[in-house]
Amino acid sequence: MVSIDKFGRLRLPNVRINVSKVVEFMGFVGRTNDVELVMYLLENAVSLEKMIIDVRDPLSVGKPLEFNETDKKQAARECGRQLKANLPFGAKLEII
């Protein structure tokens, strides 16, 4: 079960995830909780083949602002790129 502790940090169970080959994280902005969740998935999704980090706001998809480029999106992409070193062998990282 996923929960949040009194300091606002994610509390994630230490279990292996065997079914996810592709994981897409939409709305990634590079906050500590975002990074912790991605790291958890990278460490525990044993059959992971591809991690997609999408910096678009889920509420903007299909609207004119969907592809507006901002400094926040650029910073989130850079944060996502830094996670590449933690990918399991053979897995790919795609940043949208």
TrEMBL record:
Q: Which InterPro entries match?
A: FBD (IPR006566)
Where the record annotates domain FBD, the positions are 21-53
Domain of life where this protein originates: Eukaryota
Pfam families assigned to the protein according to its UniProt record, in alphabetical order: FBD (PF08387)
**Protein name (database record):** FBD domain-containing protein
